[in-house]
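RECORD TYPE: protein structure
NAME: ZW10 interacting kinetochore protein
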Amino acid sequence: MEAAETKAEAAAREALAKVADILEPTGLQEEAELPAQILAEFVMDSRKKDKLLCSQLQVVDFLQNFLIQEDTAQGLDPLASEDTSRKRAIEAKEQWKELKATYQEHVEAITSALTQALPKMEEAQKKQAQLQETLEQLQAKKQVAVEKLRIAQKQWQLQQEKHLQHLTKVSAEVKERQMGTQQEFERLYQELGALKQQARQEQDKLQRHQTFLQLLYTLQGKLLFSEAEAEAQIPQELNLPKDKPLQLTQPQEQNPQDIMGRDGSVSSKSTAPSPLEMQAYRGFLGHSNMGKDPRAGQNPAQAMVSLDFSHRGPSSASGEKQVPLATACTAMLTSLFQ
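PREDICTED:
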């Protein structure tokens, strides 16, 4: 142990002496030739190196003392411990080299990975910037689209309100027109009913006239007009519509003697009127006047017929003069056509 220490100290002293021998003449020569600033920098650098060397020597000395103490504590031979220490140092150095090589490989791998990753990272940053710009553009477009949608919805709502108001107005107009049409229809229906009733009355009146004329032709025993002339002339004389011509029934042919005999025997028959006379009376006056006074509110022709029937009552029995039925009918027809 002491021998190793003395050897180390001797080696250190010898190295320092060599350094001092080398530096002394050179330093004096440089001091004479170099500027002061360069010399100051050199001296400072030299002092740093000396301090580093001294610190390293102190570390070596500490390690040697520690190893010697360990060997002494374990009771080993200093030579054997030195060999063991050397082996361990060599193994540690080998491990250190392996670790350093592994570290270097890792550093190279990391460096190569970084070299490959840097362009990718730059490209990714560019893409990120592009995506950010695109996202901002899309957000701006989205904002514009939302604004347009809001305006479109507002316009659509206004259009719907206007359309609804128009439909309401049109519906009210249609309802009003429908009510007017319904009222007009009811009015026309009432007028149609009145016209139908009037037509029925005219038809009844025409039927009474036809019956009366048929009776008159039967009583006189001859036809005043032919059937074709009657259809064309009688509606004009009676002021009746042409679409409803009179339907005259041609009576049976009779001899004038039969008619005269029938007229002469009228007063000799019973006071009750014949069925033909009752038919003429009903046809001319209508069923609604059967229970009333025949002479009340009648024209001259109807009054004459009533007088004729009244002359057939009790007064005929006293021998009063009676008006012939044919004469009364002729007078009534004349007053009717005037």
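COMMENT: The mean pLDDT is 70.
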